[in-house]
Write a structure and sequence with these properties.
globular; 211 residues; five-stranded parallel sheet; Rossmann fold; 8 helices; alpha/beta
């Protein structure tokens, strides 16, 4: 039996990584075999691309170059990690996937959604998650989480202007509204445990009994 593919999306400081870990623990306690991974990353080649993309000291990339790099990293990740795990019946929890590229480079970056998805079809055979959890948190919550995570050392994309990140949040919301069969919007306010409770309710509602 094929596994399930769940992605966690949202802006900087939404709590995706924390929630991926909490969800993995809960699923494993129910007897589910889980892997947790991230984008860009998940393989040695994709992690090397991640370093190129996010280096705050780097020269930077155009939105078009960023899209191509993300697509290349994702193609390797899907081929070497995600598809093999799913074929073995594992559940894959991924911190960001193609919807982040659609929101960051395809929204505020100016690359068309059609072009982002075309590259995704070429590189990753159009693989989409069974469920995408869009975690939406207010400024006070995200600011506190970012301070705890990064201090004064944001990466090159995370350190962009507030207006950029506000536009990214709107783009995420638009994508979720247009694809309700795949997305669940999660209130990211409150404690990690409170958010985790909302996520577990969404997983049970959308994917049925677990374990």
């Amino acid at each position: 039996m094929a596994g399930k593919f769940i992605t966690l999306e949202g802006g900087e400081g939404a709590g995706k990584s924390t929630q991926a870990r909490l969800l993995a623990v809960a699923l494993e306690q129910m007897g589910v075999s889980v892997i947790v991974t991230r984008e860009p990353g998940g393989t040695s080649a994709a992690e090397a691309i991640r370093a190129l993309l996010l280096d705050p000291e780097g020269e930077g990339w155009s939105p078009e170059a960023e899209v191509l790099l993300f697509a290349a990293a994702r193609a390797d990740h899907v081929e070497r990690v995600i598809r093999p795990a799913l074929e073995k019946g594992k559940w894959v929890l991924c911190d960001r996937f193609v919807d982040s590229t659609r929101a960051y480079q395809g929204g505020e970056g100016g690359v068309s959604d059609a072009d982002v998805l075309s590259l995704h079809r070429i590189g990753s055979q159009g693989l989409l998650p069974d469920l995408t959890l869009l975690i939406e948190a207010g400024d006070s919550d995200t600011a506190e989480r970012l301070r705890a995570r990064d201090g004064d050392n944001s990466d090159r994309i995370g350190g962009r202007a507030k207006a950029f990140h506000e536009a990214v949040a709107r783009r995420f919301a638009d994508i979720a509204e247009n694809e309700p069969e795949r997305f669940v919007r999660i209130d990211g306010s409150g404690t990690p445990e409170e958010v985790h409770g909302r996520i577990m309710a969404a997983v049970h509602d959308r994917l049925g009994p677990v374990g």
